[in-house]
Write a structure and sequence with these properties.
The complex is a heterodimer of chains A (115) and B (113). Chain A has 115 residues and is mainly β. Chain A has one domain (4-114): Immunoglobulins (Immunoglobulin-like). Chain A has no helices and eleven strands. Chain B contains no helices and ten strands. Classes of the chains: A mainly beta (115), B mainly beta (113).
Chain lengths: 115, 113
């Protein structure tokens, strides 16, 4: 079993839809959570970075962390064709844990927003 | 400001040759990471440098892989005696500190023929 599970999709939605992307993780020592967006043949771009359980909002993006169920989500409101990309969740250990700092990634979800 | 840069962007090499991949992190970032991205394996951690501490090499797949970071800035990932299974995109990331947000470069696409 992978430490971080993410449905690879692909996910196809119409422009303007609300998109929900999800990951689950198995190690309760994971404390920091990130969402990256990766366009084809480009490096991952950091979208959201959260530490605690709860919601964090940035424009059309909302990251949600539920540590009790080891579940993280990214919501995209009013999705646009330019949001079409692969979305990767990532997590790392808390300070003081062994090998903290290195990111463990989900497999990535391919999203297509069609006009 | 300038982001993480990597060179070359693409590298084609013959099986058995050695290759060097370069990473220039964001100025002032103390932590530097190398990852590998391949179909079927996703993004995998390779090695991590933090300040003057000994690097975390726990993700290196074999002793053919090595990396160094000079002067706390530029890093070079070296793959000796390349194999076809080494074909992948090699990504470098830097961070202002451990367990902090990481910013990725565009990657080097390595093809071993």
């Amino acid at each position: 079993q992978k430490e971080v599970e993410q449905d690879p999709g692909p996910l196809s939605v119409p422009e303007g839809a609300i998109v929900s992307l999800n990951c689950t993780y198995s190690n309760s020592a994971f404390q920091y959570f990130m969402w990256y967006r990766q366009y084809s043949r480009k490096g991952p771009e950091l979208l959201m970075y959260t530490y605690s359980s709860g919601n964090k909002e940035d424009g059309r993006f909302t990251a949600q962390v539920d540590k009790s169920s080891k579940y993280i989500s990214l919501f995209i409101r009013d999705s646009q064709p330019s949001d079409s990309a692969t979305y990767l969740c990532a997590t790392t250990l808390n300070a003081g844990g062994t090998s903290y700092g290195k990111l463990t990634f989900g497999q990535g979800t391919i999203l297509t927003v069609h006009p | 400001g300038a982001g993480v840069s990597q060179s070359p962007s693409n590298k084609v090499t013959e099986k058995g040759k050695d290759v060097e991949l370069r990473c220039d992190p964001i100025s002032g970032h103390t932590a530097l990471y190398w990852y590998r991205q391949s179909l079927g394996q996703g993004l995998e951690f390779l090695i991590y440098f933090q300040g003057n501490s000994a690097p975390d090499k726990s993700g290196l797949p074999s002793d053919r892989f090595s990396a160094e970071r000079t002067g706390g800035s530029v890093s070079t990932l070296t793959i000796q005696r390349t194999q076809q299974e080494d074909s992948a995109v090699y990504l470098c990331a830097s961070s202002p500190g451990r367990a902090r947000e990481q910013y990725f470069g565009p990657g080097t696409r390595l093809t071993v023929t």
